[in-house]
Amino acid sequence: MSNHSIKAIDAIQEAQKIAFAPFVFQATVSLRKLGVFDFIFSRRKKGGVSIDEVSKELEISAYGISVLLEIAETSNIVSKNDMGLYELTTIGYFLTYNETVNVNMNFTNELCYKPLFHLNESIKTGKPVGLKELGNWKTIYEGLSQLKPLEKKAWFEFDHHYSDDIFTEALEFVFKKERKAVFDIGANTGIYSVFSSSKNSTSQIYSFEPNPVNYSRLKRNIGYGKQLGGIGLTAATLGAPVAVGVALIAFVADGIKRDYSEKKSQSDSVFNIKSRGVRVNNFTYGGGYYG
Questions:
Q1: What is the dihedral of CA 199, 169, 212, 103, to 10 degrees?
Q2: So what's the pLDDT on residue 71?
Q3: Which run of H or E residues covers position 197?
Q4: What does pTM read for this prediction?
Q5: Number of alpha helices (DSSP H) and beta strands (DSSP E) in the chain
Q6: What pLDDT does residue 254 have?
Q7: Cβ-based neighbour number of residue 78 at 10 Å
């Protein structure tokens, strides 16, 4: 048995932390949501706050506050001084105000916590058993736009936090030379298409998304309707099984006005939309254009 040079007493302590980790996590979530961390931090120059002060300010029972703070204290998230006043530690500060930590906390709590209860069954069956906690779908992607508001917000904030910089690097490579067309296959809700439009307004961007629910969000995000009002748009269904074959062809004309007259055929439908150009910073999520 490898001990990695750790003392038995320290190993037991770490094991106990793992055993009670869910308590610490959920207590931290509550302290964030209830505004306790914010209140303690706002009083940092006064040398800390008492449980009664927090209880009175936030109108929460003193017993409830004491339970949460005692749990947080075990993981050095808050500290209690000799006068019994609580202060936010550096760990507590980052749990409250660091962007990456916030994204990870919200993603874990809103989307992963309940499904993780089914992890054992998922490993044994090779199926996403825990997904049923969110909805009746075979994959999460089928239900993205059907998630509850906080779930949806957590998903897209996580997605954008870790992918936006990658898109920028990818587009630098793609547009090293002039491109007449760019194909975004598996476009999901369209952010790569919008980034491509911003990077090179002379290219035609062809965005394909097979999932009908994501497809409807894709249309909204790149200008269909009045959300962005920014991109000329042609929507086409490929073949009879719409749920399997749905495609979006976006002719990007950044800064150029153009009209598409209404046209219908067996394989495609063209909608009459005016284009005014689109900016990446207009592309939002979590109740916005993703909503």
A1: -120
A2: 97
A3: helix 191-199
A4: 0.71
A5: 11, 8
A6: 30
A7: 24
Distance separating alpha carbons of residues 65 and 175, to the nearest angstrom: 55
DSSP one-letter string for 199-247: H-TTSEEEEE---HHHHHHHHHHTTSTTSS---EEEEEE-SS-TTT-EE
CATH topology of domain 8-97: Arc Repressor Mutant, subunit A (1.10.10)
Residue with tokens 């058993």: 129
The domain segmentation of the chain, as residue ranges, is: 8-97, 166-282
With a cut of 70, say whether residue 246 has pLDDT above it.
Answer: no
Using CA atoms, how far apart are residues 276 and 9, in angstroms rounded to an integer? 67
Single-letter code of the amino acid located at 3: N
> Above 60 in pLDDT, residue 174?
yes
CA–CA distance, 247 with 179 (Å, rounded to integer): 21
What's the whole-number mean pLDDT along residues 12-31? 96
Which of 276, 134, 145 shows the shortest CA–CA distance to 212? 145
